[in-house]
Amino acid sequence: MARHKEFDRDEALQRAMEVFWARGYEATSVGDLVGHMGINRQSLYDTFGDKHSLYLQALDRYREVEARKMFELLERPGPVKRALRQLFEGVVESALGGGERRGCFVGNATSELAGRCRQTADKACGQMAAAEEALYRALLRGKKAGEIGGGRDLRAVARFLYSSLQGLQLMSKATRDRKALEDVVRVTLSVLD
Amino acid sequence: MARHKEFDRDEALQRAMEVFWARGYEATSVGDLVGHMGINRQSLYDTFGDKHSLYLQALDRYREVEARKMFELLERPGPVKRALRQLFEGVVESALGGGERRGCFVGNATSELAGRCRQTADKACGQMAAAEEALYRALLRGKKAGEIGGGRDLRAVARFLYSSLQGLQLMSKATRDRKALEDVVRVTLSVLD
DNA sequence: CGGTTTCTGGAATGATTGTTCCAGAAACCG
DNA sequence: CGGTTTCTGGAACAATCATTCCAGAAACCG
Q1: Residues of B in contact with A155 (CB under 8 A)
Q2: A102 at B interface, C-beta within 8 A
Q3: Chain B within 8 Å of A156 (Cβ-Cβ)?
Q4: Residue A136 to chain B, least CA–CA distance (Å)
């Protein structure tokens, strides 16, 4: 029989995701990908198809790995408001940290491609819906715990929170003004009071 | 002496802005620009410098033309809340309309380039600050008119509103679900109550 | 007009793009 | 081992990229 794969597929995809996440689709060349993924050019095409297909797979990978972190944070026991504050503060802190400010991969993909690539738009919609659902469940839990007033349309609030998170992540790409970012977080979370 | 310019500089720049706005920086080729601007390739380089310089000038043009529309809307006499609702509803309507969903040029530029191009980040910051200021003035006017309660930190609310506007514009690139977008608008504006 | 300057269209540039081809090394398993 | 299969590195590919060069047409003003 035949030889086995030398590299770990998931690890290579993870690297690809990081490059696309940091640089976007158009600005990333296949050469960049080959360099960062640590695999052969031909292996890339054999395993993942072409560049566009790899990009879509990277988006899926993001959902499985990065977005899951958000889901876990929201499902953690304890006050929902505190979890939400951690979620938003986390964005601010990572934006003010020294590293590269990549924002949210899904947000970046939406901004760059959703307008002209149906597949990207569909994937972005799917991730939006999943995130919205996670936020909704968290809000529902907060309502049952008496933490959040009953008068609210929680579905609408969940949508609002996701939109706000995307807005905040965009802002944090342009500015390192901590006060400005925290102003946004504070007012956003005030709708829960 | 010499011959005069055949084309109108501002009109050409306006066209360039529209192309960059719709397609982003990397996905726009100089060939695209030449086609849509209706001027000669050499004239483009003579008049605007290289592609990157033209992009930055297009961002300035956006500020002068498109952002001004927002300023005027906010300074129009009448209830501030109504002006803000018009601002946000306008985003929803143009997203649901048949045209191409370009989002906000400044937001697009921030998402695509601010992370790795200082000049773009600076221009985006400048436009953010200008928009925030316009929102702040509008809120101040609303407060004086007794339309908005006095307990709020209006600077923070202005920042929040701009961030929310960017988030909404991003959402509207991925989905045409009117209810979802209007949910976001409704909850966002509820912070003014 | 005529001399000068600038605009214009198109070709040419060299670099880079995404993708594929090829020959050989490497690893599997009967 | 040995036959088979797949991986690997690098070259090769055509297309496109941003940019520049060039020769001629066009328009100005003395």
Answers
A1: 183
A2: yes
A3: yes
A4: 13
Per-residue pLDDT of chain B (193 residues; tens, 9 = 90+): 556 666 788 889 999 999 999 999 999 999 999 999 988 899 899 999 999 999 999 999 999 998 899 999 999 999 999 999 999 999 999 999 988 889 999 999 999 999 899 999 999 999 999 999 999 999 999 999 999 987 899 999 999 999 999 999 999 999 999 999 999 999 999 999 9
| Chain B residues with CB-CB distance to A193 below 8 A | none
- The residues in A 118-137 lying below 8 A from B, measured between CB atoms, are 121, 124-125, 128
Report field, pTM of the whole predicted structure over 0.85: yes
CA of A175 to C1' of C29 (A): 59
Quote the tokens at residue A135.
């936020």
Cross-chain residue pair B184–A159, CB shorter than 8 Å: yes
Kindly report the three-state secondary structure assignment for every residue of chain A.
Answer: CCCCCCCCHHHHHHHHHHHHHHHCCCCCCHHHHHHHHCCCHHHHHHHHCCHHHHHHHHHHHHHHHHHHHHHHHHHCCCCHHHHHHHHHHHHHHHHHCCCCCCCCHHHHHHHHHHCCCHHHHHHHHHHHHHHHHHHHHHHHHHHHCCCCCCCCCHHHHHHHHHHHHHHHHHHHHHCCCHHHHHHHHHHHHHHHC
Question: Do A189 and A84 contact (CB within 8 A), yes or no?
Answer: yes
